[in-house]
Amino acid sequence: MKNEGNKAMDEINTLPHFGGVISHDYWRAYFKYMQAEHSLCNAHHLRELLRAYEQDEQSWAQKMHQFLTGLNTEIIANGGMLSSERQAEVYQQYQTLLKQAEIECPPPPTVSLEKHAKPKKGVVKRSKARNLLERLIKHPEDVLRFMTEAFIPFTNNQGERDIRMTTVHQKISGCFRSMKGAEMFCRIRSYISTCQKHGITVFDALESLFMHNTYPKFIQDVIDKMPTPE
Predict the structure, then answer these.
(1) Are residues 43 and 28 in contact, defined by beta-carbon separation less than 8 angstroms?
(2) Burial of 105 (0-12, 13-18, 19+ CB in 10 A)
(3) Where in this chain does the record put each Transposase IS66 central domain (predicted)?
């Protein structure tokens, strides 16, 4: 169903209140949360650009692939972000590439050129290369957000790695036996993954809970700042 993705995310109740940057692969359900900013995964773009070049012989796709990979290398060399002047230059280069791509990969005609042909109803089908190009045209800030914010990654691969263990569990066990068991599994994996991002090993993270009945410092600092319930 059309809104099933949003239904699940609304029930989790994180994204409806999230005001940061959501890094994702252009699943349209994420764009419902307009109070947040968005960053599109460029690993997905690179794969699609490579396909457009190798299978559809779209030369613009090869140029855009080289542009994005070169830009990522430059950003890493500059500590994660470019100067405002350089950002303006890059944005202009990006727009120039898109204009050239529009010539090579135009939208499909909306009216049939055949004599006496009836106009087709509904959305005119586009090629995969054209769909990709229209996405790059429509969301330039979201594609290039990794150059304007030092904390925004080039891809959302880390987010996908964080949920991979859930898929591994399902492949091994076939399923979760109950919703509560699935929620417990996800809560444990979330705790471990977050600790690892803060430089805390899995052993130390679990030892602090089961041996000392305490949270790691970065979690305790958040708890201490939370208002006391009346």
Answers:
(1) no
(2) buried
(3) 15-183
pLDDT at 130 over 80: yes
Q: Where are the domains of the chain?
A: 1-40, 42-109+126-155, 158-225
Q: What is the DSSP letter of 81?
A: -
Tokens of 144: 């290039």
Q: Of 70, 74, 127, 75, which Cα lies nearest the Cα of 101? A: 127
Average pLDDT of the segment spanning 172-190: 82
83-97, 103-117, 206-220: range with highest mean pLDDT: 83-97
> What's the CA dihedral at 142, 144, 149, 155 to 10 degrees?
80
**What does the pLDDT read at residue 219?**
80
Strands (E), the chain: 21-24, 37-40
Structural tokens at position 223 = 């708890």
Count of CB atoms situated within 10 Å of the CB of 40: 24
Distance of alpha carbon 193 from alpha carbon 117, whole angstroms: 59
Instruction: State how far the Cα of 94 lies from the Cα of 119, in Å rounded to an integer.
Output: 35
Residue 2 has pLDDT above 50, yes or no: no
> Which position has the higher pLDDT, 132 or 189?
132
- Residue 83 CA: distances (Å) to CA of 72, 89, 91, 147: 14, 10, 12, 9
